[in-house]
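new request in #modeling-help
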Amino acid sequence: MKTVLVTGASKGIGEQIAYKFASKNYNVIINYNTDFKNALRIKNDIETKYNVKAITIKCDVAKEEEVKQMVEQSIKEFGSIDCLVNNAGIAIDTLFEDKTAENFRKILDVNLVGAFLVSKYVGEYMLKERSGKIINISSTNGIDTFYPMSIDYDASKAGMISLTHNLALQYAPYINVNAIASGWVETEMTKDLDEEFIMEEQEKIFLKRFAKPEEIANVVFFLASDEASYINGEIIRVDGGY
Ligand code: NAP
């Protein structure tokens, strides 16, 4: 049986990725940072609905020692990690004038350094197995959609795209490393956006709506599947047309 490690799986897109893989017979490692209650709810629900094992692991992906321990615990529990989804992420939108170096670094630490650290420690095991899939959840904000209110977030997501290309090269020819450049998705991250701003953004999307988290999870699973065996070092936009 295969195993997936999903970072930031206690809600939103990560939660739906966990469910998708469980429904396809993967054991699931549900990483969370603060929301143990929700992570536990997801674990119990997955184990009730599907014939797989799910575990929760608390780890701040920005902290190297915690990442090391999470990966060691995962390997101890399941023997291997076949797929890693670097999904954990934060955004702190503020006026450009109020941006501080401290906040900028915090976002880079979680979104970018975190994805690097988890990939590094999981990658070691995947290389031993000579197989594996890594999927990074980036954003169209990292390519060509810009908001000065989230200049730090956008930079972190652009960094994830470079990380994807570099890891695909570093881990060649054994591990496929790809990224999804997601557009707007209905999650906690976007629930407090100004109503008028949401309407304006939806108007710009060809499908006239934000994505459901499941619609991102479906593409993540495709990238992890044998159907996508020749896709590598690629950035797939999932933005409804924008
Ligand atoms: P969300 O609902 O806010 O969930 C974020 C998840 O990340 C939570 O499970 C949270 O865990 C976890 N997390 C935050 N900091 C962490 C840390 N230091 N270590 C480990 N986990 C951490 O966000 P979402 O909308 O589902 O976003 C998921 C990913 O998709 C993010 O990388 C985001 O940038 C990306 N994305 C989102 C959108 C969108 O419109 N929503 C668009 C493009 C890309 P706890 O709650 O347990 O702390």
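bot summary: Helices lie at 12-23, 36-49, 64-78, 101-129, 151-170, 188-191, 195-204, 213-224.
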